[in-house]
Amino acid sequence: MEAAGRPGPAHKALDALVGDWKAEVKCWMEPGSAPEVTQGTAKVSWKFNGRFLQEEFHGQMMGKPFSGQTLIGYDNTKQTFNSVWISDTQTSMFTSEGKGDSGNKVITLEGKASCAFSGRTDVPMKTVLRIDSPDKHVLEMYDAAREQTRRR
Prior knowledge:
Helix content: under 10%
Oligomer: single chain
Structural class: mainly beta
Distance between the termini: 45 Å
Number of strands: 9
Largest sheet: 9 strands, antiparallel
Strand order of the largest sheet: 1-2-3-4-5-6-7-8-9
């Protein structure tokens, strides 16, 4: 049990995300439309002795400021990455789970989210986190149902 609770190589792969970051956020409300582009900041640090990363994010969405937090970690028992996102714009928590590829430089997480706009509680979401370099990482989030429709 002690070994399963100890941070390992997958946790170490998340080290590249630690720090203070400037973010450029692009949000497409409809496929083919021009994105809304805003700026944000993120502060990422280790919690619980290297078991979870906590990100504090501050940005804008649809012309209004917002703040959010993410916890991400690796479950040694399930051998999956896990994440939870909360913000001051919603009352739900978005949880997701997935695997790493390319030496855990690409982490793909999937889950279901609630949408306050539509009232749906089962929106399938896909998040892809790419660690491109020590100075750059990219987070892409998709409505997985729309993505599957576009690919057909």
